[in-house]
Each structure stands twice: as structure tokens, then as C-alpha cells.
């Protein structure tokens, strides 16, 4: 029995994307090519690997086992390719992002980029999204991964969308905020994109607020929420045990989705910047939002 790498890659994409069509788009293949790869893989292992459960595609028990091996095989394969592939690009790319991205997926992407482009130096700065956007405007950085709640029609035309998150009003399990209260807010600070929207939505409904705590760290904000110090706006993936969604605000003051995009400084169209931009888009939009 011989397993080829690209069939394993197609299998992983189908499971991740929950379908052959989105997997094909992710891999840059046709749907029929992806279907053929999965069919050939099942023929080689002589057992089914996928089952349809309603609207979902689920791996069979053998599929789950193979998927675990596939992750390691693909990681080793891609690391070997990165290690052997060397570009002749030289230069410096200044990259900005917020803590959430820097603490999860970014390090691995930049490390892989460094192996492929050893003569390109990447300088990373981490701060709130408003600050990162300001750095782009004043020319302090060349490239940024930022959060935005802007209407897509008003954004720079060459923004690259990575993923979209929901936003949620959250508080501690034991806290019971009400619209007649002076609601204590927990925020990431004045330079966070969530606070202005949250205060405006509540003010429009006649709800008064005050900032009970400001903390630039997601861990600090989560701890403050869980302790019952107030209400926060968090991305859905950052809602953890000990928190509940504020049902009244969810219904009466729905929050807009937040997009993560790669944004380039106008005029920053040199080859090193383009190469890092492409690598960030390939890696982050393929793997989805960091967990």
C-alpha cells in the first residue's frame, strides 16, 4: 500500500472544508480532481474514509486514524520542501498585527517564510488593531493583519480576507446585567475596535455604561469577565467556560461581524512584501481562524 501526499492533502481539505467544492477552491483544483483523489485514496486503503451525516461529511473510524497520520505526513513533507526551497529575495518587511494573531498562527508562518527566504528580514510589531492601522497610514509598517468592522465596499481594494468572526456580548455566569443598569464594561482599551461600537449600540438604546477595566491582553479580559467585573465584547472563539452571552444585548444590540484582513501600505509593492503577503494569505486563509 502506497499513499501519495496530494491525495492526503485533498482528504484533509475535504474534512476541513466540509465539502468537495470548497476543498477544490482551497487547493486550486477542480471538484472532479478532488473527488478522484479521494476515490483513489479509498481504493488504495480498501475501505471507506468518509460518510455523509446529514449536511456534514464525517470521517469513518478508519478515516479519523488516517487523518491523524495525514497531518504529520503533510507537516513533515511541507517542512522538507520549505527547507530545500530557497529564494534569492533580499530586504526587510515590517509586519504589524494584534495579540490574538501573534500568539497563535503567525509565528509558524513567519518561521516558514524565513526558511524559504533566508535573506529577507521580517520585523514584527504587535498592538491593538487601531494602532496597527495607524502604523500603516504613517508608513511605519509595510503589511498588517488587522481586524475590521468596516463595510467591505469602503476598504482598500487589495485587502485580502482571511476569516470572519462573530462578536458576542458576554458576562460571568453569576452576573445579571440589565438594560436599566449603568453597565460596567471590560475593554481592551481605547484603541480596540470593539469598544466604540459597543458603547454606541448601548447608548442608542438609552443604556448608560462605564469602563470598569481596561486590559490589552485577551487573557486579562477573559479573567475579568469570569470574575464578574463587567460585560465585554469578545470574538466567539474567545468565549470560554464561566461566561455566558448577554441575551438581551444579543437580541437588541446585535454586533457586526469582524473580518480579519491582510492590508498593505500603499506603495509597498516590492517583491519581499508581496512574497510575505502571499504566504500569510495562503497559510492563514487555508488553515482558518487560529484556535
What does this structure look like?
The chain is built from eleven helices and twelve strands. The protein has helices spanning 5-17, 20-27, 31-45, 61-84, 99-102, 106-116, 129-138, 194-204, 218-227, 247-252, 271-287, and strands at 50-53, 56-59, 91-97, 120-126, 143-148, 160-165, 167-172, 182-187, 208-214, 231-235, 243-245, 258-264. Helix 1 (5-17) crosses helix 3, helix 2 crosses helix 3 (31-45) and helix 6 (106-116) packs across helix 11. 29% of the residues are buried.
CATH class of the largest domain: Alpha Beta
Question: Mean pLDDT, as a whole number?
Answer: 88
Multimerization status:
single chain
Low-confidence stretches: none
Report the CATH topology name of the largest domain. D-Maltodextrin-Binding Protein, domain 2
What's the number of extended β-strand segments?
12
Structural class: alpha/beta
Q: Biggest β-sheet: count, sense, barrel?
A: 5 strands, mixed
Main attributes of the structure:
3 domains, globular, five-stranded mixed β-sheet, 12 strands, 44% helix, D-Maltodextrin-Binding Protein, domain 2, 291 residues, 11 helices, alpha/beta, Arc Repressor Mutant, subunit A
Q: Would you summarize the structure shown here?
A:
The protein has 291 residues and is α/β, with parallel strands linked by helices. The chain is built from 11 helices and 12 strands.
Itemize the secondary structure elements and their pairings.
Blueprint: H1 5-17, H2 20-27, H3 31-45, E1 50-53, E2 56-59, H4 61-84, E3 91-97, H5 99-102, H6 106-116, E4 120-126, H7 129-138, E5 143-148, E6 160-165, E7 167-172, E8 182-187, H8 194-204, E9 208-214, H9 218-227, E10 231-235, E11 243-245, H10 247-252, E12 258-264, H11 271-287
Parallel strand pairs: 3-4, 3-5, 8-9, 8-10
Antiparallel strand pairs: 1-2, 5-12, 6-12, 7-10, 7-11
